[in-house]
Structures are given as structure tokens and as C-alpha cells.
Amino acid sequence: MMIVQADSRKLEKHQSETLRNLNVFLLGRRITCMTVPAIVDAIHTACIEGDKLTVANYNVHSFNLSMQVPWFYNFLQNADIAHCDSIGILSAIRLMGLKLPLQYRASYSLLMPELLEHCNQNRFSVFLLGAKPEYLQSAIAQLRNQYPNLAVDGHHGYFDMSDPHQNQRVVQQINSFKPNILIVGMGMPIQESWIQKNRHQLDVNVIMPGGAIIDRMAGIVPDCPAVLSNIGLEWFYRLCREPKRLAARYLFGNPAFALHLALARTYSSSLKVQLMKPVTRKSRQRGVEPDSIDLSLENYLLETGLITSNQVEVELG
């Protein structure tokens, strides 16, 4: 039984590594569809090359916010990576005609363990910004215990971001530590607003908004069981655990998202897809092209069975 499970994991890893990085435009929102290994590889490249990379994410909540808040839409559009963070987004893309496999779901429950282990192996450093002071310290202690080669530090999220002196002290603390990766866990969209305002003065390679990830690292908020998240019920699990905080997000947000998709289907809004270009600045400067394939993108999507509808518009640009 263990041999079968190991073979299954190897097969899934191989499939993830052979999937192409795609830009999918869902209702005008650019979603960078990448597997977990591909995202970790892009982060690794940024750290090695000394680049600065912003890695954002799309779930139903962030998608809804992008429809309502113009600056938030711009933040996601301008992020180097805005990966697919939920089954809800994958299901929406499938509804619009592009049948992406589950490996394109790069939720933090899947991404963070892989990323932290990679950082541990390569001795990269991580700075955590956010959460209550006691939760932050617990998260740092857990990471130091689990990943002994990982340099990690942090600052809690309970400071006055509107006070330039307090905010600058936090920025200086981050820059003094010189982390490869900065994870900002203040909740959406506060964390994105802070990143947008302070990104230019941060001496880091990778910036990632993390939501409740610090609380999860501390063990305060448990991860959703895989059996539920794999069938798209992570939102229900979290709603049951935190009904007061999440009721509006899910009970109003999910129907609003479904309405957007229904309108798009009714008025035949097409889904655009293109091969993703290199995400790091130095790779772009060297003229590195996306992985070459013998087939055109359209033929590749057809051959792999990803296109299920003529609503998909293939772009090579």
C-alpha cells in the first residue's frame, strides 16, 4: 500500500512539473496558473538572482474585491505572480471552457510547506509581518524547530501603519534582517495595501501577502482537511470554525461570484489564455523565452484535453 502511495505521489509530481505556466484572463483578471513546484522555482530564481518579486493570489474573496476596489485590482494585475489559490477559481475557469487540472491549485496549505522546506534546504531567510505578538512568536518558534537551517524573524501586525515613524521602524527592522522572503499576514486587503505603499523601500527578494498564514504556522488556525479542500469545501470548513468573521465573506461573496460567472456565460464573454513569460526581471533582460513546445499553444491545449469549449481564446503574445 505504501509503495502504491509513493508511486502516486511521484506521478503527481511529474505531472505538475510538465504542466505549462499559463496566464488565464477570467473576466479581465489575469490569473497566473502555475503549479506549486513552478512557483517555488520562480521564488528560488528571484532569491538567487537578487530580483524583487511580488507573489499575490486569487481566491473567490480576492476576485470579488478586485471587482469592487480599483486599487486592489491594479495590485493583482501588476503582481509578478497572481496564482490560483482555490478550487472556486479553478471551477470558474473550467466553467468558462478551460479544463485545468487540480495541480494548478496553489493554495497556501500546499505551497507553504514546500516553500519553507525549500528555503530550509537552501538556507534562505524569511521575515513574518503580522498577527498578534504572541501568535507571531509561537509561529517563529515552530518554524525554527521544524526548519533548523531557516533564518526567520518577524514583527507583529499591531502597529499604526498610518504613523510614518512606526511604519518606518518596521521597514527598517525588515531591511536590517535582509530576508529573501517577506510574508505579510494582515488579512485582505490591508496586507496588499501595505505592500503597495512600502514595496519600493523594502530590501527583499520576494513579497507575499499571506492572510492568516502566520496564525496557521502558530497552530492557532488549523489547516482544512485535504478531503474537504480537494472537493471545494474549504470555505465551508472555515465558515464553520469562524462564522462571525467569515459569514459575510462566504454567504454574500460566493453568490456574488457565481452571479458574475453567470452573466459572463450569458453574454458569451470569452476566456483568454496565453503562455506565461519569465517572471524575474533578469530572466527577461537575458531574453529567456517560455519553455518551447513543438505544438502551438492552441494545439497543446487541445492535445492535453484542457480546452473543453470554443469560448477559450488563445493568445501567443
Ordered list of secondary-structure elements with their pairings:
Layout: H1 2-18, E1 22-26, E2 29-33, H2 36-49, E3 53-58, H3 60-68, H4 70-78, E4 81-84, H5 87-95, H6 108-122, E5 125-130, H7 133-146, E6 151-155, H8 164-177, E7 181-185, H9 190-198, E8 206-209, H10 213-217, H11 226-229, H12 234-241, H13 243-251, H14 253-266, E9 271-275, H15 281-285, H16 297-303, E10 312-315
Parallel strand pairs: 3-4, 3-8, 5-6, 5-7, 7-8, 9-10
Antiparallel strand pairs: 1-2, 1-9
Helix pairs in contact: 2-6, 3-4, 3-14, 12-13
Q: Your description of this structure?
A:
With 317 residues, this protein is an alpha/beta fold. Helix content is 51%, strand content 15%. The protein has helices spanning 2-18, 36-49, 60-68, 70-78, 87-95, 108-122, 133-146, 164-177, 190-198, 213-217, 226-229, 234-241, 243-251, 253-266, 281-285, 297-303; strands spanning 22-26, 29-33, 53-58, 81-84, 125-130, 151-155, 181-185, 206-209, 271-275, 312-315. The strands form 2 sheets. The protein has a 6-stranded parallel beta sheet with strand order 4-3-8-7-5-6, with helices on both faces. It has a 4-stranded mixed beta sheet with strand order 2-1-9-10. The chain starts with a helix and ends with a strand. Mean pLDDT is 87; it is low at 1-8.
Number of helices: 16
Q: Classify the secondary structure makeup into a structural class.
A: alpha/beta
Summarize the main sheet. 6 strands, parallel
Strand content: 15-25%
- Poorly predicted ranges (pLDDT <50, ≥5 residues)? 1-8
Query: Separation of termini?
Result: 46 Å
In quaternary terms, these chains amount to: single chain
* Number of E strands: 10
Give, in order, the helices and strands.
Answer: HEEHEHHEHHEHEHEHEHHHHHEHHE
| Order of the strands making up the biggest sheet | 4-3-8-7-5-6
Label the overall shape: globular
Mean pLDDT: 87
What Rg do the Cα atoms give? Answer: 20 Å
